[in-house]
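Running log. JK asked me to keep both predictions on one page so they can be read side by side. First protein, sequence followed by its tokens:
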Amino acid sequence: MELIFEVSKAGRSAVEVPQSDVPEVNIEKVIGKKYLRDNLDLPEVAEVDLVRHYTNLSRRNFGVDLGFYPLGSCTMKYNPKVNENAAALPGFTGLHPYAAEAMAQGSLQLLYEMQQMLSEIFGMAQFTLQPAAGAHGELTGVMMIKKYFERKGEKRHRILIPDAAHGTNPASSALCGFEAVTLHSNNEGGVDIEHLKSLMTEDVAALMLTNPNTLGLFERNIEEVSRIVHGKGGLLYGDGANANAFLGIARPGDIGFDVIQLNLHKTFSTPHGGGGPGSGPVGVGKAMVDFLPVPRIVKTADGYQLADKFPDSIGRVKAFYGNFNVVVKAYAYIRSLGAAGLKHATEMAVLNANYIKERLKPYFDLPFDRVCMHECVISGSRQVAESGVHTSDIAKRLIDFGYHPPTIYFPMIVQEAMMIEPTETESKETLDTFCDAMIAIAGEARENPQRLHDAPLSTEVSRLDEVLAARKPDVCWKK
């Protein structure tokens, strides 16, 4: 495909700019000579060429609206268009961020009700919607944990993080001045209870636990884990990135979690990936409410207000009040499904993941052979041993079958890992055709491994030198 500069022909234009009726000014005096740009060398194309170029370019991008996107841990689920319509309502999109509270009562009401719904769904005392995304929510949660112990006069320096955790967990801990200590998994893929007992001292502020974890497995011993942590005065932090595996079935607040961060852009359908805005609300138990960020949305006899007089708050963590339109989409998702619908979505997500796991089990290694939650983890170790085909080869070959590859080489405690998350919206027919493709690739790995080493075969660009592409990317156009 030609670049837009290669399509360019001198003298062509996609627009006709009207004659300016603004008086001329000496722009050099206004902004300074060093900021002036002459001869920008912009492409010159006709409107039809411009439209065709970018339409064809868009077709080369893969998205969940085009096909199955089984990216484990990242939850690339289909987004109902009613959510997009709700977020595009003029009353939401036209509201100025600095509008007076009296003019923003509808938006403030939506935010307040969203906090209340999340508190009910997850069994927490209160939520903040300020954090911009999951990792930002983590940081907010750890900041509150730090403030909690400071107010108690306790100097705790360590946070425990399982070896199957998301990589942002230790980063959030370190940013707040804590030492991140690795907690081992047992042979079932859960927390090693004996190792937890040995690590859990009065110097530990919290255990950051993803449940279900990145192996797609629910922590069977969660109540014992909670007792051990709380027994030493620590807090139990829930990484809620995988909350779409227990909505309507379990509430973290009921099983001992003191803090939990969510990813609205995963669990509640709003767009994930592509660099778009996220949303990482944080919920807390009663003991942590005083430390929530400000401003907080409160309901009074006169309506809804942004209140900031909370002396123990960690302060503001996001300009204005979070990524508002993402919250609108998640609000629409919850209201359209209701309690029964959220539970049904969870049940279908878990059923779909277990269906894939069972269909692929005879053809790939299964590191933990137990009922999974919303995602399953398989391994390409068998293919490596038999024919030298690696997980990366399998992923690239899957592109030729029209599918985006699943997450690979994560979690890192599984060799040659492939993490597959089908979400609740995919049909059995889609799951079957995906599994058929994976089974066919497993056959090719035995019979014609070179085909996988050469894949993808159907794309405009085939194999790149991955190390060179990562370390010395060249994305500039040159004549």
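And the second, directly underneath as requested:
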Amino acid sequence: MPPVITAFESSPDRGRGLARDMRVRWALEEAGQPYEVRLKSFAALKAPDHLALHPFGQIPTFEDGGLVLFESGAIVLHIGERYPGLLPSDPDARARAIGWMFAALDTVEPPIWDAAMAGLLESDKPWCVERQPILEARARVRLDQLSRHLGDADWLDGAFSAGDLMMVTVLRRASGLLADYPKLAAYVARAEARPAYQRAFAAQLVVFEGAARDS
């Protein structure tokens, strides 16, 4: 049986592919592996059966035979290690690609996430007007550094890898800032043009459109 992943039954990103199941879908598409999706409502995420898979009540989860994983980074790393297409065969290049996965999640994503969520969740708070520019400035520090490293290269370290996959999914949440970073914007566009990305995006968009019709 193919692996099973979980995703939002009705995603709050309105079909833009920002939910973290997109990372896993994309990785499986890059690896050429079929998969099934189990859709979850927000209430179902807190039910005992799901908490047995993900103790924090989130998505995605990944079930493959007796293996159960949570956390999108861990799942993508597992896919890259099990199937060809996401991690280089050369040990040093492989280690660098994994390093970029960690950089995306631990260094670049936190300030981008903070800036994006503050604009969504704190816009009615009296401190938002003063706090938002501070958060965006922190995100720009990382975007400046990343843009300098990327330069005119197509990908972060040689060929496309899981490091690029994770980084692009992080940068897509910073779309409002990328207009000031043409090299990063072009980098994201290159990744989005990949057939595997297109298949993954279309698959998650169908879920949103179905939920919208049923609402």
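Observation for JK regarding the second prediction: The beta strands are 4-8, 36-40, 61-64, 67-70.
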